[in-house]
Automatic annotation (TrEMBL):
A Pfam family: Dus
Catalytic activity field: 5,6-dihydrouridine(20) in tRNA + NAD(+) = uridine(20) in tRNA + NADH + H(+); 5,6-dihydrouridine(20a) in tRNA + NADP(+) = uridine(20a) in tRNA + NADPH + H(+); 5,6-dihydrouridine(20) in tRNA + NADP(+) = uridine(20) in tRNA + NADPH + H(+); 5,6-dihydrouridine(20a) in tRNA + NAD(+) = uridine(20a) in tRNA + NADH + H(+)
Domain of life: Bacteria
The protein, known as: tRNA-dihydrouridine(20/20a) synthase
NCBIfam families on file: PRK11815.1 (NF008774), yjbN (TIGR00742)
Residues that coordinate or bind FMN: P32, M33, L34, Q84, K153, H186, N226, G227, G228, G248, R249
Residue positions of the active site: C114 (proton donor)
Cofactor(s) demanded: FMN
GO terms for MF: flavin adenine dinucleotide binding; FMN binding; tRNA binding; tRNA-dihydrouridine20 synthase activity; tRNA-dihydrouridine20a synthase activity
Family under the similarity heading: Belongs to the Dus family. DusA subfamily.
Domain DUS-like FMN-binding residues, every copy: 30-338
Annotated positions for site Interacts with tRNA: N111, K198, R201, R315, R318
Length: 345
């Protein structure tokens, strides 16, 4: 065996091991959500659950390769964390995959599900479902340039291309041509024309059975389901049919549901859920460090508004943070005072 063949085999073995790790870690995840799942949100969520897989917001290849800001910052505590990429150039995606691996991300996810006009104009997101060979080329380019797993997040269809055959043709092409093993499927199709991104999250009907059928027909693939899942009871039902569950808005609007994920979803029965008050206390040093670096309190507390969802006084908590955290001189005392609104401090 030549040295090059040896290196290639080593990379393939590493990729296989990484894919196996990915199949285990993706049993439960919080979806990548633009303007929501930033590094402050992920740090906050990680205090609630140690096992849940967390995702960045979607970052375009252009932003990474040509942007002025650093879009790849994350705290090591956030791990396992996945970088979601938006793009359709295999060459650019390969470069970004190398950078992601160097930065310490444990996985890369290709966005083939976002239906916004801006994303379509950039030729990525859900419109790529119509180009399965290109998606396969993109995934393979990333796999060839980095040893960390590459996964695909997609929909069940787009516009009038919403048959089960269309979905299986897409999955089979990508899986066969790139050896991608991990797919997260939003159980709604996307309307590329006529609906806003918000409407695309609500109006197209959910079809969980189609995702279940996909898993039955492609049992060798790791299939996770996404869309409309609002609690852990529902997640456990889905896990009877698929390999993983991805929760989106529910985890953001009611983040405390994450506190019992490790016990209920990962069977870590020895771990008691952290209390809301403990989470707030643990956030204070992080907030102080952010403020010391010139950050604003609101950058972090906006992700914490739903922490007391369903608890008496939750509205007062939200109102106090909303009305006071945006001030330029706002500090951790705002958080302490918000606790007082709940009679906890």
């Amino acid at each position: 065996m030549s040295q090059q063949q040896s290196r290639d085999k080593s990379m393939q073995d590493s990729q296989l091991a990484s894919n196996i790790d990915a199949s285990l870690s993706c049993r439960f995840s919080v979806a990548p959500m633009l303007d929501w799942t930033d590094r402050h949100c992920r740090y906050f969520h990680r205090l609630l659950t140690s096992r849940t897989q967390l995702y960045t917001e979607m970052v375009t290849t252009g932003a990474i390769l040509h942007g002025k800001g650093d879009y790849l910052l994350f705290n090591e505590m956030e791990q396992p964390v996945v970088l979601q990429l938006g793009g359709s150039s295999p060459e650019d995606l390969a470069k970004c995959a190398q950078i992601a691996q160097q930065r310490g991300y444990q996985e890369i996810n290709l966005n083939v599900g976002c239906p916004s006009d801006r994303v379509q104009n950039g030729r990525f997101g859900a419109c790529l479902m119509a180009e399965p060979q290109l998606v396969a080329d993109c995934v393979k380019a990333m796999q060839d340039s980095a040893a960390i797993p590459v996964t695909v997040k997609t929909r069940i269809g787009i516009d009038h291309q919403d048959s089960y055959l269309f979905l299986t043709d897409f999955i089979e092409t990508v899986a066969t041509e790139s050896q991608c093993q991990n797919f997260i499927v939003h159980a709604r199709k996307a309307w590329l024309q006529g609906l806003s991104p918000k409407e695309n999250r609500e109006i197209p009907e959910l079809d969980y059975e189609r995702v279940y059928q996909l898993k039955r027909d492609y049992s060798h693939l790791n299939i996770s389901i996404n869309g409309g899942i609002s609690n852990l009871t529902q997640a456990l039902v889905h896990l009877e049919h698929v390999d993983g569950v991805m929760v989106g808005r529910a985890a953001y609007q009611n983040p405390y549901l994450l506190a019992d994920v490790d016990r209920q979803i990962f069977a870590d029965h020895g771990k008691l859920p952290v209390s809301r008050e403990q989470v707030v206390e643990q956030m204070i040093p992080y907030i102080e460090a952010h403020l010391a670096q010139g950050g604003r309190l609101q950058h972090i507390t906006r992700h914490m508004l739903g922490l007391y969802q369903g608890v008496p006084g939750a509205r007062r908590w939200r109102r106090h943070l909303s009305e006071n955290a945006h001030h330029t001189d706002a500090g951790v005392q705002v958080l302490v005072d918000a606790m007082k609104q709940l009679g906890l401090s």
